[in-house]
Specification:
The radius of gyration is 20 Å and the shape is globular. The protein has an eight-stranded mixed sheet. It has a six-stranded parallel sheet with strand order 3-2-1-4-5-6, with helices on both faces. Helix 4 links the parallel strand 4 and strand 5. The chain folds into two domains: 154 residues, Rossmann fold, CATH 3.40.50; 170 residues, 2-Layer Sandwich (Dihydrodipicolinate Reductase, domain 2), CATH 3.30.360. 31% of the residues lie in helices and 27% in strands. It has ten helices and 14 strands. Helix 4 packs parallel to helix 5 and helix 5 packs antiparallel against helix 10.
Amino acid sequence: MVRIGIVGVGFMGRIHFLASQKLQGGEVAAICSRDPKKLAGDWTSTRGNFGPEPGPVDLTGVTPYDSYDAMLADPSLDLIDICNTTTHHPDTAIRALRAGKHVLVEKAIALTPELADEMLAVAKGTGKLLMVAHVLPYFPEFRFAAEAVRSGKYGALLGAHFTRVIAAPDWSAEIGDADVTGGPAVDLHIHDTHFIGLLAGVPKALFSVGHEANGAVNYLSTSYLYGPGGPAITCNSGAVAMPGRPFVHGFEIFLEGATLSHSSAGNLPLTVFPKVGAAFQPELPGGGDPLAAFTAELQAAVDGVNSNTEPAWLGGQLGRDALMLCYKECESVRTGKIVEC
């Protein structure tokens, strides 16, 4: 049994805790927070943009720690699940790795690629897993797309367009603060750069146009340049929508033998348009459970610890490269130039 300690009991810490209830071979055995109410199970303040309404949780069998050092000294813990703010990710992760623990750190891995590189170096030196909790590939529609592209089931990837646009969240001011989260072009858009990297790798260069507010890029449109013969991939992402249309994400993926289409706008389901035959909507797992993707993500991390093998979709280098692309795009927005990756 992989015993997990969660650091940071905010919105994402709560989501991870709830999602862990359906794990096989893993369990949350400890939490760490400076808030005595949260340590006692009062999580009513952990509001977010999806999932069940926050409230009290049953922490029976879960050891509460108000000291991170005390948590790291617990020899029974195998995996530290880091859900605190992005500014604290490097220090929290490095201390856990050096304490002999495997690490799952929420996205973004860090605020800068240089800090991410330091984390990767420590993981390599300690021989422990550094996994980055990018959940998007575990959502059914994106999982189907990732498996279709990576398997070559419908032939080579020719091109794709991704969309992820939200209204400025009223539940978190931090997403717009570049000093805390990197701003929307990092905290939000990194979902896209991670998925694009997973499908096609790091491009040779990119070109972005966009808009800034309060020192942060809050909307951008990017062309990823893979060179002659490479896939033609574009994306638009940001936090500029009106409250009446608070969240839209989706994709059009063009393969040699099929087009894959999905949009959350109007609940348009994933549809496969094959080269031969009628379009169809594949049966997807999950059953409408909003936490199923997070359970699958955590299960991959637990399985990785059990096998001492880095899960492909949670790779530390993949998470670092996703962060790097976000900053290259911000550079392109600000300079108006093509930026090499």
